[in-house]
User: Which sequence fits this backbone?
């Protein structure tokens, strides 16, 4: 069964090739069979491999499959080789499984779109590239997948390219992540000069012997990798691209900008955890980035009016939690939250897509309302997803995964009380903005009539994902409630087990109860403010201070404004000065003189045959003169 | 039989060529332009014949046959163009067909 591993990334690539080459001729039915089927088959193979991995793990809990040699120069070898362990298994499971349901959903969501097969071609290419990213055994192969998913993200954000705003959002996403990728590339160069290889396992095993803990090279390398992760995962200070990325079709937002690609940064840091453990300062940086991001994005989400932008900021915020977990050394808690987050965030985006489809593509949730009765399945699944996102205690998966992170933010190897406070405050914000969205969208009176009732292709993905968003959390229960550690036991073969530096059941219980109570209070506050006493909010936003705060939060805490002044304008200014520089003058002169000659010679093209004859004769006379007399 | 000297022959050829060339330049009627070209070609042929007879070589006559063949081909293409020109512009004036100026 393991030998089929190569098929997992190969099938989506094949689907992409078929759709890209023959997409136009295939028609919608065959396009959807190819697009959905390729991902579906890889999901089935992944499930079979995963099942075998659980029952009959390979030697050392690692399965490596070398396909062929990619680059061989002197001592530098890069193979196209797949590396399957518990960490990559979790990722390929989420990518193919959630990806399959999002593809299935897309057949209905994109049904009337002209670019139907183009959409599935991009989506398949994305899935293939993402699988290469997580299965690649060397950093170069990882980087290939990394750039591949970036390309697909660009293509899909700008999918509806007729609107210039979408093209702008796509370019913004591409350029902002490129800033992080440049840092990551430098990090790879540094690792290569230090270790002479880019093979991940070789680097991880050689690093502790080469670099002592706290070595400055280790710190620089990990910070550079963090730069790449921050760009891809939309963390502070490069988070500005993700909310604008919502310009793409909603299934894209669900798959790429919520469930999988944006968590590539989490994967990178978890994968290189051996390096980060040598650089405690970098770990602290990861944790601080996480906390700062989850707070900034949480505040921004509170003021958004576009339902997809609320979800986008909440994605940024939840990835902040994952970074926090990685930063404090709670590796498997971070990966666990990644998995649960993929379920409920994909669910929420798909639900939002169903709502947008039902509301004539209206995205402003304040223009919606009262959808609970009209779209019951969407409502209940969306409610489950929201409960999971807001970490409603005991019943939802999100509670177990986020609770673990909040507890480790305090008690983990790198945890402290400030990180914990930030994480708890973030949980309050999460509960508030999530249920603000639910109450505004689904309750109150219905304002727009329903334009599209979802069919089974939308309902099935919603229900399956809702199931996982509810029950996925029961494989890892905290010490105070049953202490079940199936997931972290599973991850033990790759990631070190987190050690709480103060094992205190009563403190843990205190943290849990406090967080749960605060989250429930936040939900209640959203209920009061946005369902019962909406006028309080309106009155507040009508005051000068309220309006200023509102627009400040709405703009994502002014980061776009800041970057506009800090980077874009100076750059444009320098470029404008540079345009008239001395060296350019020479080339401008060349262009000018050739244009003058062009005008001159164009006079001779009078179109009169007799003039041409005259020209010929003169030319002949001149040539003959030269030949005879010189 | 009086041999005409090469010099005389070349001068006659030159005069013929000039007549044809001037005709080509000053005439606007396309038929006359074609005629002028024929005259120029015959001038060149005449020069070949004179040169061939001067050095008693057959090349000159062979070249003349080539020129005749070429002239026939040229006339067929040229007349086809004349037909086209006339159909398009209802005139044989070449200056009317000057819409390809640069």
Assistant:
């Amino acid at each position: 069964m393991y030998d089929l591993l190569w098929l997992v990334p190969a099938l989506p690539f094949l689907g992409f090739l078929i759709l890209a080459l023959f997409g136009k001729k295939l028609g919608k039915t065959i396009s959807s069979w190819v697009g959905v089927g390729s991902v579906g088959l890889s999901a089935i193979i992944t499930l079979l491999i995963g099942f075998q991995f659980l029952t009959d793990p390979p030697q050392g809990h690692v399965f490596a499959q070398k396909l062929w040699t990619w680059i061989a120069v002197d001592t530098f070898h890069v193979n196209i080789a797949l590396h399957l362990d518990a960490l990559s298994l979790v990722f390929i499971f989420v990518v193919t499984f959630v990806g399959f349901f999002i593809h299935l959903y897309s057949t209905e969501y994109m049904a009337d779109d002209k670019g139907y097969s183009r959409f599935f071609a991009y989506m398949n290419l994305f899935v293939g590239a993402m699988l290469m990213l997580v299965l690649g055994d060397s950093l170069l192969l990882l980087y290939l997948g990394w750039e591949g998913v970036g390309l697909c993200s660009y293509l899909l954000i700008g999918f509806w390219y007729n609107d210039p705003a979408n093209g702008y959002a796509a370019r913004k996403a591409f350029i902002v992540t490129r800033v992080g990728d440049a840092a990551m590339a430098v990090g790879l160069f540094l690792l290569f000069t230090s270790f002479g290889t880019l093979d991940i396992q070789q680097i991880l095993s050689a690093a502790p012997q080469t670099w002592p803990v706290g070595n400055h090279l280790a710190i620089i390398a990990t910070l550079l990798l963090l730069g790449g992760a921050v760009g891809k995962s939309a963390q502070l200070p490069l988070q500005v691209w993700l909310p604008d990325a919502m310009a793409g079709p909603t299934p894209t937002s669900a798959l790429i900008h919520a469930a999988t690609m944006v968590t590539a940064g989490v994967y990178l840091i978890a994968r290189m955890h051996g390096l980060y453990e040598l650089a405690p300062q970098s770990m602290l940086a990861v944790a601080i980035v996480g906390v700062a991001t989850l707070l900034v994005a949480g505040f921004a989400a509170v003021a958004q009016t576009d339902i997809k932008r609320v979800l986008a900021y909440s994605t940024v915020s939840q990835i902040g939690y994952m970074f926090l977990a990685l930063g404090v050394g709670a590796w498997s808690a971070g990966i666990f939250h990644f998995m649960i987050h993929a379920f409920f965030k994909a669910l929420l985006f798909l639900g939002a897509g169903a709502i947008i489809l039902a509301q004539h593509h209206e995205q402003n949730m304040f223009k919606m309302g009262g959808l609970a009765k009209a779209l019951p399945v969407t409502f209940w699944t969306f409610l489950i997803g929201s409960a999971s996102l807001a970490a409603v205690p005991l019943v939802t998966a999100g509670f177990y995964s986020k609770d673990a992170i909040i507890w480790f933010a305090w008690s983990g190897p790198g945890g402290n009380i400030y990180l914990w406070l930030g994480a708890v405050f973030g949980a309050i914000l999460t509960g508030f903005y999530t249920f603000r969205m639910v109450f505004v969208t689904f309750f109150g009176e219905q304002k727009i009539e329903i334009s599209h009732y979802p069919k089974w292709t939308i309902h099935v993905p919603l229900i399956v994902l809702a199931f996982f968003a509810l029950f996925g959390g029961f494989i890892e229960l905290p010490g105070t409630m049953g202490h079940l550690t199936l997931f972290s036991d599973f991850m033990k073969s790759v990631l070190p087990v987190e050690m709480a530096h103060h094992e205190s059941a009563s403190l843990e219980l205190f943290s849990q109860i406090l967080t749960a109570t605060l989250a429930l209070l936040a939900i209640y506050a959203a209920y009061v403010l946005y369902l019962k006493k909406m006028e309080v909010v309106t009155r507040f936003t009508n005051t000068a201070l309220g309006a200023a705060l509102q627009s400040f939060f709405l703009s994502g805490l002014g980061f776009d404004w800041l970057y506009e002044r800090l980077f874009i304008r100076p750059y444009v200014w320098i470029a404008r000065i540079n345009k008239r520089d001395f060296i350019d003058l020479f080339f401008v002169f060349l262009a000018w003189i050739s244009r003058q000659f062009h005008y001159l010679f164009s006079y001779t093209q009078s179109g009169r045959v007799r003039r041409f004859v005259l020209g010929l004769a003169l030319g002949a006379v001149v040539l003959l003169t030269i030949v005879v007399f010189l | 039989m009086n041999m005409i000297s090469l010099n005389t022959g070349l001068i006659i050829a030159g005069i013929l060529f000039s007549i044809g060339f001037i005709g080509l330049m000053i005439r606007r009627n396309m038929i006359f332009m074609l005629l002028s070209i024929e005259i120029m070609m015959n001038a060149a042929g005449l020069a070949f014949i004179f040169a061939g007879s001067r050095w008693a070589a057959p090349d000159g006559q062979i070249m003349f046959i080539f020129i005749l063949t070429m002239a026939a081909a040229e006339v067929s293409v040229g007349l086809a163009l004349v037909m086209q020109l006339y159909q398009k512009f209802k005139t044989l004036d070449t200056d009317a067909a000057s819409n390809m100026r640069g």
Notes: Residues 331-532 of chain A form one domain. The CA atoms of residues 300 and 553 of chain A lie 5 Å apart. Chain A touches chain B at residues 601-610, 613-614, 617 (CB under 8 Å).
